[in-house]
Amino acid sequence: MGSGTPAGISADPVIDVRDVSKAFGDTIAVDGVSFEVCRGEVLGFLGPNAAGKTTTMRILTGYLAPDAGTAMVAGRDIHTHSLEVRRRLGYLPESAPLYLDMGVLDHLRFVAELRGVAPASINARIADMIDICGLAGVVHKNVGELSKGYRQRVGLAITMIHNPDVLILDEPTTGLDPSQIIEIRELIREIGRERTVILSTHILPEVEATSSRVLIINEGRIVASGTPDELASMAVGTERVVVAARAPREELGRSVTALPGVIEATELGEDADGYVRYALIVQKGAPVVDGLFDAVTGRGWRLRELTTERVSLEDVFLRLTAGGGPDADPTSDVGRRAKQRRWEDDR
Amino acid sequence: MNAVASIARKEFRSYVASPAGYVFLTAFLILSAWLFFRVFFLVGQATLRPFFTVMPWLFLFFVPASAMRAWAEERKLGTDEVLLTLPVREGEVVLGKFLAGLSFLVVAIALTFALPLIVSILGDPDPGPMIGGYLGLILLSAAYLSIGLFASSLTENQIVAFIIGISLSFFLFIIGEDIVLIAAPRWAAPVLRHLGLGQHFASIARGVIDSRDVIYYLSIIGFFLYLNTRAVESRKWR
């Protein structure tokens, strides 16, 4: 798994999942999933919809029972010590389902009571949550009257009101607008500093922005695990370079393809002002950029664009989950266009 | 036990906060008063008998209606995922919802006190049967409530919960009534009569508070609360 434990994260696992499986009728939602989460980690569950992220979380929180396998949270079995496990967890389900007819304060108080927060400190905790989650302006409203962003914040407040060691958040930013998404991510980063967090998402930048470790889940199985950097380096050892130069088409094509380290060159088209763009798949580490620069300027051609696009988490994710197989090239244009479309949907 | 109190308080507040609760109470009171008075003056006796005769049928409709939302809505909105992942036992939640529903029904029943008041002004009724009748009413409504809550825990759809609640309650009521007993085999008749919700109510309504009747109602309530708890727990393995 990880290459040693980063600072601030202790070695004993707070969450220990072994071979958990769950099927709904004929559909296998979770298939022999095993993983560990150490104290202080922010673990991102990354996977397409229906990958098994929500089901895994529901099993950890005791909402569902697994068909097979066990899990321990803070040293306690989720089946035999369910109540104790739930005491140590804070769980926010997808879409933050709250009681719409309750006032924000009432809701916080209700959950605080049920969570066993000492009556004497309930008011102080509520005030803390209002502060941390930025609820000051909506405290007197009913939850049903709030916008989705504020509802999510109330949800987070409820999750943390008893100061749990472990937080489990299911798609905490779904349905929020961009500015709300940034706020919630910042909040999660803050929260995650001193707690163990598991969060699930199908939005890739979110995982890169918030998690210290990532589990990629697809069709009920874990297909990859590691820090965002480690996963990115799992990609095929290629990079993508885009160059735009003003030059006669065939000549440019020939010289570009002739460079050492270039695996494949695709012409992307010609701009209105005569600049031709090429996308090159190159071997990682090959000095292609320098070679290109020399080649183009050496012949007196104008150079306008020369960029390297490093293969990122997105490409690994798509490769692992789009059914392209382990040999599919994550840097191909088809993949890129498919990725573009997915982006449109998420945003 | 604290959990039960918190849940009961929250549930009761939602009965009171929504306009549906007041519509319910209004319809209930108007109907019960109307049904009582159309018979009362015909009979010409200072007794609440007509009231207690009609109430079980009114409850049959109104109590499942008040209970149908309790679990069905939680499942539909997904709030049960928040509630049941809190450190509370399913049984505590079931009990909390039951107590809240019962409190609401007690309020509804208490609001009908206008009727015995009027009867007392108009005549000189025997207090025993009136007190007994009201006690029986509370027990009967509690029984219907436990059935209605169980029905609600079976489905996400409130209408389906309502229908199941009425059907179950009706079934349990009718098997003790003469109309069924006549058709039943000789050996079964006393058993069925004892099982029926109606017969026990009738004896309490006469002013006789027999421990057997109270035990009967408590057993029915306990049984359906138990079923309710199991139904809620069963979600884990669905």
How is this structure best described in words?
The complex is a heterodimer of chains A (347) and B (238). With 347 residues, chain A is α/β, with parallel strands linked by helices. Chain A has three domains: 13-233, Rossmann fold; 238-309, Alpha-Beta Plaits (2-Layer Sandwich), CATH 3.30.70.120; 313-346. Chain A is built from twelve helices and 14 strands. Chain A has helices at 53-60, 82-88, 104-114, 119-132, 148-160, 178-192, 204-210, 228-233, 249-258, 288-298, 313-321, 333-346; strands at residues 13-24, 27-38, 42-46, 68-73, 76-77, 89-92, 166-170, 196-201, 213-218, 221-226, 238-246, 262-270, 275-283, 302-309. Chain A has a six-stranded mixed β-sheet, sandwiched between helices. A four-stranded antiparallel β-sheet of chain A has the order 2-1-4-5, covered by helices on one side. In chain A, 42% of the residues are buried. The model of chain A is unreliable at 1-5 and 324-347 (pLDDT under 50). Chain B has 238 residues and is mostly helical. Chain B has one domain (2-237). Chain B is 80% helix and 0% strand. Chain B has 13 helices and no strands. In chain B, helix 6 (90-110) crosses helix 13 (211-233) and helix 8 (127-152) crosses helix 9 (158-174). In chain B, 40% of the residues are buried. The interface between A and B is medium-sized, with 30 and 24 residues.
